[in-house]
Amino acid sequence: MFERMREDIQGVFHRDPAARNTLEVVTCYPGLHAVWLHRLAHALWASGWKWLARVVSNLGRWLTGIEIHPGAKIGRRFFIDHGMGVVIGETAEIGNDVTLYQGVTLGGTSWNKGKRHPTLGDGVVVGAGAKVLGPFTVGAGAKIGSNAVVTKEVPAGATAVGIPGRIIAKVDDEQAAKRQAMAEKLGFDAYGVGQDMPDPVARAIGQLLDHLQAVDGRLEGMCKALNELGSDYCAKELPALRTEDFVGVCKEQDDKPAPG
Questions:
Q1: Total Cβ atoms within 10 A of residue 41
Q2: Once rounded to an integer, what is the mean pLDDT over residues 46-69?
Q3: Which of 69, 108, 128, 154 has its CB 3.0 to 4.6 Å from that of 116, i.e. a possible disulfide?
Q4: CB within 8 A of 199, min separation 6: which ones?
């Protein structure tokens, strides 16, 4: 028991930069208190002391603002950050190293008995205000964006955002490297490139870089063909784009165009 409590405390330090010392974490983190009370309530529930388990669960809700049904199954190093308004249903199953933020609901969409609530794999992160509703699985390492409403399975490592929740297509590593190379060739850092969040500006810049790369490749091929014919038409270097030219387009941070 004490080993798991020690793990929980270390999990807070790993995932909350505001945590300063062990005394502060133990006394001032309601998410931690809710998890510890749930463990007691779940042990009572599994032993057949249903009413007493619900009393302990209700006490935890009253003290922390976090409602976890004593029947829910929770893995190791589970962390609820801030926590107010979190609701976790009876048949929810949560893996190891999962993080939930305030206002998250792991709920059901049916009044029927049996499995009604979601299963979260190891390392899942659910953003503030998100609702994950139904008896499906959110794969290991997946992320649910803030205020998303997810009612269908989320693959491992994917990111779901929006209402209804949709999976964001991730740029593969090779394409991301090509975009970065093109941005560096142009002389500026394209903000937002390579981010998972569905920023329309970042998406547009990424597509522009893909197009510029294709144009650049075609021009190089044409120049090579002209050189083979004895022309020096492509001998001159193209003028570089300077970072300062983009000051009026996007805010600067650390001498680079900043996200959003």
A1: 25
A2: 93
A3: 108
A4: 192, 259, 260
Angle at 69 between CA 65 and CA 73, to 5 degrees: 120
Q: Are 102 and 83 in contact (CB under 8 A)?
A: yes
Q: Alpha carbon of 207 to those of 174, 184, 242, 252: distances in Å?
A: 14, 16, 20, 22
Mark whether 44 and 160 lie in a shared domain. yes
CA distance 151 to 168: 15
Both 161 and 194 in one domain: the answer is: no
Per-residue pLDDT, averaged over 146-161, amounts to 90
Which amino acid is it at 240?
A
| 121/177 same-domain check | no
pLDDT of residue 38: 93
How far apart CA 54 and CA 71 sit, in angstroms, is 9
Q: Which two tokens stand for residue 16?
A: 């909350």
| Count of residues in the chain | 260
Stretch 171-198: mean pLDDT: 54
Residues 216 and 194 in one domain: yes
Encoded amino acid at 114, one letter = G
Could you read off the pLDDT of 71-83 as tens digits, one per residue? 999 999 899 988 8
79: β partners? 99
Half-sphere exposure of 221 (CA within 13 A, CB side): 6
CA dist 137 and 95 (Å) reads: 11
Q: Give me Rg for the CA atoms of the chain.
A: 25
Could you tell me where the DSSP H helices lie in 187-257? Answer: 200-228
Query: Identity (one letter) of the amino acid at 7?
Result: E
| Residues 160 and 188 grouped into a single domain | no
> What phi, psi does 167 have (nearest 5°)?
-85, 130
